[in-house]
Amino acid sequence: MSVTNSLRPLVDRDELTLEQKEALLGYALIAPALLLVVAVILYPVAYNVYLSFTEIPLDPAEAPEWVGLQHYSTLLSSSQFWAAFKNTVVFTFFSDVLATLGGLGAALLFNKKFRGRRLARGLMLLPYVAPLIAVAYIWQLLLDPLYGVVPWLFSDVLHLYGGNIDLLNSSKTALGMVIAFDAWRYFPFAFLMLIARVQSIPQDMYEAAKIDGAGKLAQFKDITLPELKYVLATVFLLRWIWNFNKFADIWLLTRKVNTLPLYAYQTAFSNYQMGQAAAISMVLFLALMGFVLVYVSTVLEW
């Protein structure tokens, strides 16, 4: 065999069909995206799985110690973990429900024509588009036990309790304040999703219902809700997935509410237990994957 023949490419481009050339071009175009996914998502996830089965020493010179399922068994027997898990579920559920109901009410309200509706719609989006750190600081000022408007209103005006209570730093009220903050900040997202669907409902359906004698409540129950059920399910499940993994909002507002993301952060960077924190992250990851599967099977119907 000659040297020329030995250096001949394994695949002659001239012998490729048009379909094969298009396939090679497609692989070349998606290769950078695949490399990015592997570097940013798959590798960190795989490394986190490895960390959850090992004990990482503080001394970089020492080798990690394989401990198997020890971190997971420690979590299952930890009252602090179950308290964080409960706080996560309570925060996610109630903030999700309140934000979705607020968005639904706003969508129904702004579906009606009135003067200044465009301006009001723009103002409705302010909580969602405003910088998180700015709105969190404003809420801290509003809830300040000495100078805040909300404690003064609750104690001196409405007489719901006596004395100054730090609503953000009290174990009895901190979770409720975080839920209220998240519902207020993210109900515009539900509003944007729902208002588009509400405006696309044919008005002929409501006119026919009026002719049949159906009232406002019957029209809402028999027409509006069935037309909105897929959008409502989408909003609820997406917000559930996002809220279950929420960190920045809670961290900036108060340190008295311990959810799974905050518990993992404190375990890793305050207690320096990287393996334990990786196990918490894996529990959180598996829970989120379960919610994603529910979303894909129920909403997307894949």
Summarize the structure in words.
With 302 residues, the chain is an all-alpha fold. It has 2 domains: 3-52; 71-300, MetI-like (MetI-like fold), CATH 1.10.3720. 72% of the residues lie in helices and 1% in strands. It is built from 14 helices and 2 strands. The chain has helices at residues 3-6, 18-52, 70-76, 79-110, 117-124, 126-129, 132-142, 149-157, 174-199, 203-211, 216-244, 248-253, 260-269, 274-300; strands spanning 54-55, 65-66. Strands 1-2 form a two-stranded antiparallel ribbon. Helix 2 (18-52) crosses helix 14, helix 3 crosses helix 14 and helix 4 packs parallel to helix 9 (174-199). The termini are far apart.
Main beta sheet: strand number and arrangement?
2 strands, antiparallel
- What's the architecture of the largest domain, going by CATH? Orthogonal Bundle
Instruction: Categorize the overall geometry.
Output: flat
Residue share in β-strands: under 5%
Stretches where pLDDT falls below 50 for ≥5 residues?
none
CATH class categorisation of the largest domain: Mainly Alpha
Quick summary of this structure?
The protein has 14 helices and two strands.
Fold topology:
Elements: H1 3-6, H2 18-52, E1 54-55, E2 65-66, H3 70-76, H4 79-110, H5 117-124, H6 126-129, H7 132-142, H8 149-157, H9 174-199, H10 203-211, H11 216-244, H12 248-253, H13 260-269, H14 274-300
